[in-house]
C-alpha cells in the first residue's frame, strides 16, 4: 500500500490556491499532510521546495510542513491576462531521493481599476446620422481577470446618446455608443459627456474618460468593408514587416467624403505594438516577431474612415502557428560542485529538469552526456533526471570534470541546448611523496663555513593541499655509527641541504645520510632517499718529509770520488695528506754548492750525480731540495742534504764534521758546536764510569764484612763444599757436579722467576 501511495504521489500534481499579493508568511497548504509525512520526517529527509522558474515565491517549514508565501506574487506580472495563473514547483526529499510536483493557483483580487488609453475621446458624427446608429468606442484596459475585470460602461446624462456594453469572443468587453436623437449641427455643433468603465470587484473600481462629439456636415454614405470578419494564420517565426492580411472598404461618396483612411482601433495596446496598417492600402503588417508561447491569438479592430469623418469597422482574427523556435532548457535543481575522489559509483552529483516551451513534438525532449566521462544520467520522473557517477574517480588523473548535458527536442529541424556542470574532485591522501632521485650526490669543500647551501632535495606528491605538502627530515643514524646527521641539515619546507660545520677531507672524505619526506595527510605517507655528500679536498696540507727527517738540521750522505754520472746519492721521501693533484709532489734542486754536480728526479725524489765526480769538486757539498705539491696555491717543504766526497770511507766522519776548504763562519760554528757536544758526552760517560766503580767497590766490601760475621756453614747443608765467589750461592742435592759455578742474570721486568733462592740453614 505504501509503494502504491508513493507512486501515486509522484504521478499526480498537488494543487493549491492563494490570493495574489498575499502577505509574506501567509499560509498556503500543509505539505506534510498531503504527502502523508510528519514534520520530523520532512526535517530528516531535508525536504525543500524547488521552483520552476528562477525566483522562489514559496517557502516550506520543515518542522510543521506548512507551505507559506515567501515573496508577494502579482498575478498580472506573472501571467498577464492568462487564466488560470499557476505557480509550479517541486518538493524534493532526500534519503531516498523523491520529488513531488505541485502547483499554486493565484486567484485574482481587484487591485487594478479600468484605464482608458486616451483621457479624451473625439467622435466626429455627421448630422445626418439616424437614431439607433452605433459608434464603436475605445475600450478601457483592466489587467484583472474574471469578475474583477471590466464589466460594463456607463455615460453621464446627455440628450443624444446611450451606451451599450458588448462582449467579444475572448471575453473582453467594449462599448458602443448609440444615437437615440437626431443631431442638428445648426443647433449644437458639439456635445461632451463622460464615459465610465466599471469592473466587477468588491468594492468595484472604475476609470473615466471624456467623450467629445463633433457634429459634421452631412456625409450620407459611410465606408463599407468587403468582409466584416477576417480569419488568418501566421507562423510565429515570420519576420518583421510580413503582410498579415489586406482589408478593403469602399465609399459611394465622391471627393473627400469618398477617400478612405484605414487605422487600427485602439482596443488593445498590445495590438498597437504588434501590428501596423497602411492607412491608404489597408495592408496589415507585423511590427515585431510573434511568439506562440506568449500569445496564441490576436483580435484586431480595423476602422475605415472617409474624408467626411464617417467610419466603419471590421474584425481581424490572427491565429499564431507554433514552430520549433525554442530550444530545450536544462534547469539545475541541485548540484554538488565538489565531490570526493573516494566517492563510490552511483553517487548523485546533480538533479535537473528539462523544459521546452514549444508544444507537440516540438516540446518533447531527450537528454544525453557528451564525451567519455565517468558519469551517467538516470531518469527519476517525467522530465526529471539525476546525474550520477558510473565508476570510481581519481583526482590525480583528472582534477575536475566539465560535464555537458545536452537536451534535444523532437521538432523538425530538432533544436538542442547544453548545460555544462563543473565538478571538482576533493583530494584524498592516497599517494606517497616520490623523490626525483633515489640517491642524491652533493659536493662540499673542506673547511667550508657552516650554513653554506650544498643543494636542494626534491620530492613530489601528486595529491593536493596539505596532502601534497612535503616536509623533509634526516633519519637518525643507528647507535654506534658515524653521526653524519650532525654534519648537515635539511630545511623542512624547501629541502635545502646546508652544512652545519667545517669538515676535514683527511678525516671525513665522504658520508651518507637517509632523508625522510612525509606529506601532510592524515595519516601521513612518506618516502626515503639516500643523500651522499662528497668532501672536496682543498690544498690545506704542505708536504711532510719522511727522509731526511724534518727535525734534523741536515742529512749526511757519502759519495766516493770515483762515482760516475747517475750515481744515486740519496732519495728524498715526502708525503702529502691531501688528495688528487693537491697530493701530487714534484722535486727540484733549489740550491747547491755546485748545482751542475747533482740533479733531482722530478717525481722520484732521487738525488743523483749529474756528471762524474772530479778532484776539483769540493769535498763537502750542501744541497737544498724543494718539494712542492700541485694545489692552488701550491704548498712546499725543503730538505737539506750534506754530501761528503770521500776517497774511502775511513775519513767519512771527518769529512762530514769538517770542511777544510770552507771558510764560512757558519760552518766553523757548526764544527765548534759539534766539538762542544763531544766533550760534554765524554765527561758524562767518564762520570758514570767512576760512579759505577765506586758503587761496585762499596758493595764488595759490605758483603765481605757480612760473611766474616756469619758462623761456618752447616755440614748438612754444604756437604760437598762451599762456594765463595762473586756469583750467587746455590745449594742443591740434584745430579749436577758441585765443581760447577753458575751465573744468573734476571731482567727487572721478568716478573715471577722460575728460580727458587733458598735461605741459608742456620744452626
TrEMBL record:
The gene is Pcdhb14. CDD domains: Cadherin_repeat (cd11304). One of its GO terms (biological process) is homophilic cell adhesion via plasma membrane adhesion molecules. InterPro entries: Cadherin-like_dom (IPR002126), Cadherin-like_sf (IPR015919), Cadherin_C (IPR032455), Cadherin_CS (IPR020894), Cadherin_N (IPR013164), Protocadherin/Cadherin-CA (IPR050174). Keywords: Calcium, Cell adhesion, Cell membrane, Glycoprotein, Membrane, Repeat, Signal, Transmembrane, Transmembrane helix. The chain crosses the membrane at residues 674-697. Potential calcium-dependent cell-adhesion protein. May be involved in the establishment and maintenance of specific neuronal connections in the brain. It is a single-pass type I membrane protein. It is found in: Cell membrane. GO terms for cellular component: plasma membrane. GO terms for molecular function: calcium ion binding. Its main location: membrane. It comes from the Eukaryota. Gene3D superfamilies: Cadherins (2.60.40.60). Residues 10-116, 117-225, 226-330, 331-435, 436-545, 559-662 form the Cadherin domain. The keyword Mitochondrion does not apply. The keyword GTP-binding does not apply. This is PCDBE protein.
Amino acid at each position: 500500500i505504501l509503494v502504491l501511495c508513493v507512486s501515486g504521489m509522484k504521478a499526480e500534481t498537488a494543487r493549491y490556491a492563494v490570493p495574489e499579493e498575499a502577505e509574506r508568511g501567509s499560509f498556503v497548504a500543509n505539505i506534510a499532510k498531503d504527502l502523508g509525512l510528519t514534520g520530523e520526517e520532512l526535517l530528516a529527509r531535508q525536504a525543500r521546495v524547488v521552483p520552476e522558474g528562477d525566483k522562489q515565491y514559496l517557502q516550506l517549514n520543515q518542522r510543521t510542513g506548512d507551505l507559506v508565501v515567501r515573496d508577494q506574487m502579482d498575478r498580472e506580472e506573472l501571467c498577464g491576462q492568462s487564466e488560470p495563473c499557476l505557480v509550479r514547483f517541486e518538493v524534493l526529499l532526500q534519503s531516498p531521493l523523491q520529488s513531488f510536483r505541485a502547483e499554486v493557483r493565484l486567484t485574482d483580487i481587484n487591485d487594478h481599476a479600468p484605464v482608458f488609453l486616451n483621457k479624451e475621446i473625439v467622435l466626429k458624427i455627421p448630422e445626418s446620422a439616424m437614431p439607433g446608429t452605433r459608434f464603436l468606442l475605445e475600450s478601457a484596459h483592466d489587467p484583472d481577470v474574471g469578475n474583477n475585470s471590466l464589466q460594463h460602461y456607463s455615460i453621464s446624462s446627455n440628450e443624444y446618446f446611450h451606451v451599450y456594453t458588448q462582449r467579444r469572443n475572448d471575453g473582453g468587453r467594449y462599448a458602443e455608443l448609440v444615437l437615440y436623437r437626431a443631431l442638428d449641427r445648426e443647433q449644437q455643433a458639439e456635445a461632451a459627456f463622460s464615459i465610465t468603465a466599471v469592473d466587477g470587484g468588491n468594492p468595484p473600481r472604475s476609470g473615466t474618460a471624456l467623450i467629445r462629439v463633433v457634429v459634421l456636415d452631412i456625409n450620407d454614405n459611410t465606408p463599407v468593408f468587403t468582409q466584416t470578419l477576417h480569419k488568418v494564420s501566421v507562423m510565429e517565426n515570420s519576420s518583421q514587416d510580413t503582410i498579415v492580411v489586406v482589408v478593403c472598404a469602399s465609399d459611394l461618396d465622391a471627393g473627400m467624403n469618398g477617400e478612405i483612411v484605414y487605422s487600427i482601433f485602439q482596443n488593445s495596446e498590445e495590438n498597437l505594438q504588434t501590428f501596423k496598417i497602411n492607412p491608404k492600402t489597408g495592408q496589415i503588417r507585423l511590427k515585431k516577431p510573434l511568439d506562440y508561447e506568449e500569445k496564441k491569438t490576436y483580435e484586431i479592430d480595423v476602422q475605415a474612415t472617409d474624408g467626411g469623418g464617417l467610419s466603419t469597422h471590421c474584425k481581424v482574427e490572427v491565429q499564431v502557428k507554433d514552430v520549433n523556435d525554442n530550444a530545450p532548457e536544462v534547469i539545475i535543481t541541485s548540484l554538488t560542485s565538489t565531490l570526493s575522489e573516494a566517492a563510490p559509483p552511483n553517487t548523485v552529483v546533480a538533479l535537473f529538469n528539462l523544459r521546452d516551451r514549444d508544444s507537440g513534438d516540438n516540446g518533447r525532449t531527450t537528454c544525453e552526456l557528451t564525451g567519455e566521462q565517468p558519469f551517467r544520467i538516470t531518469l527519476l520522473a517525467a522530465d526529471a533526471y539525476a546525474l550520477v557517477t558510473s565508476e570510481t574517480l581519481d583526482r590525480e588523473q583528472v582534477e575536475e570534470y566539465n560535464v555537458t548535458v545536452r537536451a534535444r527536442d523532437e521538432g523538425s529541424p530538432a533544436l538542442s541546448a547544453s548545460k555544462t556542470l563543473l565538478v571538482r574532485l576533493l583530494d584524498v591522501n592516497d599517494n606517497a611523496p616520490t623523490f626525483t632521485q633515489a640517491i642524491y650526490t652533493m659536493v662540499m669543500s673542506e673547511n667550508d663555513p657552516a650554513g653554506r647551501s650544498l643543494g636542494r632535495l626534491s620530492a613530489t606528491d601528486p595529491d593536493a593541499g596539505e596532502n601534497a605538502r612535503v616536509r623533509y627530515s634526516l633519519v637518525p643514524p643507528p647507535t654506534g655509527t658515524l653521526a653524519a646527521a650532525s654534519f648537515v641539515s635539511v630545511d623542512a619546507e624547501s629541502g635545502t641541504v646546508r652544512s652545519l660545520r667545517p669538515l676535514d677531507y683527511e678525516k671525513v672524505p665522504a658520508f651518507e645520510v637517509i632523508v625522510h619526506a612525509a606529506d601532510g595527510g592524515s595519516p601521513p605517507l612518506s618516502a626515503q632517499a639516500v643523500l651522499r655528500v662528497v668532501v672536496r679536498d682543498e690544498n690545506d696540507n704542505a708536504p711532510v718529509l719522511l727522509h731526511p727527517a724534518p727535525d734534523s738540521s741536515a742529512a749526511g750522505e757519502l759519495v766516493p770520488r770515483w762515482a760516475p754520472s747517475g750515481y744515486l746519492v740519496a732519495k728524498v721521501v715526502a708525503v702529502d695528506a691531501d688528495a688528487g693533484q693537491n697530493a701530487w709532489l714534484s722535486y727540484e734542486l733549489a740550491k747547491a754548492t755546485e748545482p751542475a754536480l747533482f740533479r733531482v728526479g722530478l717525481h722520484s725524489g732521487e738525488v743523483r750525480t749529474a756528471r762524474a765526480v772530479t778532484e776539483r769538486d769540493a769535498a763537502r757539498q750542501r744541497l737544498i731540495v724543494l718539494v712542492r705539491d700541485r694545489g692552488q696555491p701550491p704548498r712546499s717543504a725543503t730538505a737539506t742534504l750534506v754530501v761528503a766526497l770521500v776517497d774511502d770511507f775511513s775519513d767519512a766522519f771527518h769529512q762530514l764534521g769538517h770542511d777544510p776548504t770552507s771558510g764560512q763562519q757558519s760552518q766553523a760554528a757548526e764544527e765548534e758546536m759539534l766539538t762542544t757536544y763531544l766533550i760534554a758526552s765524554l765527561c758524562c760517560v767518564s762520570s758514570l764510569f767512576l760512579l759505577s766503580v765506586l758503587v761496585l767497590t762499596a758493595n764488595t766490601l759490605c758483603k765481605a764484612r757480612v760473611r766474616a760475621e756469619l758462623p761456618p756453614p752447616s755440614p748438612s747443608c754444604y756437604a760437598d763444599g762451599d762456594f765463595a765467589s762473586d756469583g750467587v750461592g746455590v745449594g742443591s742435592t740434584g745430579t749436577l757436579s758441585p765443581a760447577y759455578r753458575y751465573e744468573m742474570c734476571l731482567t727487572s721486568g721478568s716478573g715471577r722467576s722460575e728460580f727458587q733462592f733458598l735461605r741459608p740453614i742456620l744452626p
